[in-house]
Write a structure and sequence with these properties.
CATH superfamily of chain A: SGNH hydrolase
CATH architecture of chain A: 3-Layer(aba) Sandwich
Oligomer: homodimer
Strand order of the largest sheet of chain A: 2-1-3-4-5
Number of helices of chain A: 10
Order of helices and strands of chain A: EHHEHEHEHHEHHHH
Shape of chain A: globular
Number of domains of chain A: 1
Structural class of chain A: alpha/beta
Strand content of chain A: 5-15%
CATH class of chain A: Alpha Beta
Number of strands of chain A: 5
CATH topology of chain A: Rossmann fold
Chain lengths: 242, 242
């Protein structure tokens, strides 16, 4: 009965129900109003995400999602010839893959609220420290992701949203407005701290509110307990349940 | 495609996706393996919960939940003649209502893993402080819930689980094993702190693991990114997606 909000993305989505995570916070914001479903796939880029589309969002679904966040690019922006090149997707293909994802979602349900989220900024020093903590001496010197390359992907994401008339969150820019974003909002130069998660949550809620998906304006799925008469509970439930 | 775990209960379930909440933690435990769905209704007792049964768990569902937690009693145990008496349900009726809930879930799906959770213990001093902070001088002197009355409800819950051969979590007893549980595990004498939420999460995971719903033994719903060949991604997806 409740509408579904599907979070489609990479590890930044997959990890979003960890303590302080933006997915869990979103589920809490929409308590008794919508279900928030995690479809995050750590390490995935948009090329690999395409394989999942028909399975996660079947065209013949009788109850398609009411809204979806599409949050890819952090892996697509891995740099060719460096340690994470397996995940690299060329810039133009990234944009086209995102377009295919959006078209598929809109084919599932033309009224689906689709929100594109850019990858967050990259803190190269944080990435280097993380690589050294994992690989020690063997850690490769050249960064596998840079903030400047990720910027290009973020720009394509925003440009596509404009072309298609979709709402978007420019997380790459937004996070860099915070002084000390490198350590404050990112835990390893790429993934989100609790404060970084709070930024994503706040931005997604803002965009949902600007669209038609404001939790404050959505009905509770059943009566608030204060509306139930202890001696005559049937009355409160008669419209919805009897 | 993923199995669903439905959390059915009162505010202790409804609030379970707040920061540090046991529902969000459970969703994280089952990341990429099962969806955790919140069906918590703050203030509800088992009598009112019965009105929702057919709506939340339709008998003709083609994809019934794989598992459900049933976590009621904190409101049923409100004391007659005191401020929360509207929520009071007699002890015998509480047990019979729980039985009806279980029978309905098993009618939906005989293999559904149903786990009964007792209400947590009540810290009367904490409840009193909370009432004074909200109502000031007007706060009623006599507690609207007591730990001893809640114990009776917890016992009925455990007894029913034994009668029906169901798994259960005796939260009332478990939480009181912790020194200083009154302040450590409860925020207002009734609701859970982060540490209290951690106890519920740990106990539910333990019981799920003892049954057949161990996250460690469940398959990922799509290949882990490390199994995907960057040059030939089709291969990793051919079984599930092509």
């Amino acid at each position: 009965m409740r509408p579904r909000i599907v979070l489609f993305g990479d590890s930044l989505t997959e990890q979003s129900f960890r303590s302080g995570g933006w997915g869990a916070a979103l589920a809490d914001t929409y308590t008794r109003k919508a279900d928030v479903v995690n479809r995050g796939y750590g390490g995935y880029n948009t090329r690999w995400a395409l394989f999942l589309l028909h399975h996660l969002f079947p065209l013949d679904s009788t109850k398609p999602a009411a809204a979806a966040t599409v949050f890819f690019g952090a892996n697509d922006a891995a740099i060719l010839g460096r340690t994470s090149e397996r995940q690299y997707v060329p810039l133009e293909e990234y944009k086209e893959n995102l377009r295919k994802i959006v078209f598929h979602l809109k084919e599932c349900c033309p009224t689906m609220l689709v929100v594109l989220i850019t990858p967050p900024p990259v803190d190269e020093a944080g990435r280097k420290e993380y690589a050294q903590s994992v690989y020690g001496e063997k850690a490769v010197k050249l960064p596998e992701r840079t903030n400047e390359v990720t910027r290009l992907y973020a720009e394509q994401c925003i440009e596509l949203a404009k072309e298609l008339g979709l709402r978007s969150v420019d997380l790459w820019s937004k996070m860099q407005e915070t002084e000390g974003w490198q350590r404050k909002l990112l835990s390893d130069g790429l993934h989100l701290t609790s404060e970084g998660n709070a930024v994503v949550h706040q931005e997604v809620v803002r965009v949902f509110n600007e669209a038609w998906l404001s939790a404050a304006e959505m009905p509770y799925d059943f009566p608030h307990h204060s509306e139930i008469d202890g001696k005559n509970p049937e009355k409160a439930f008669q419209h919805q349940c009897l």
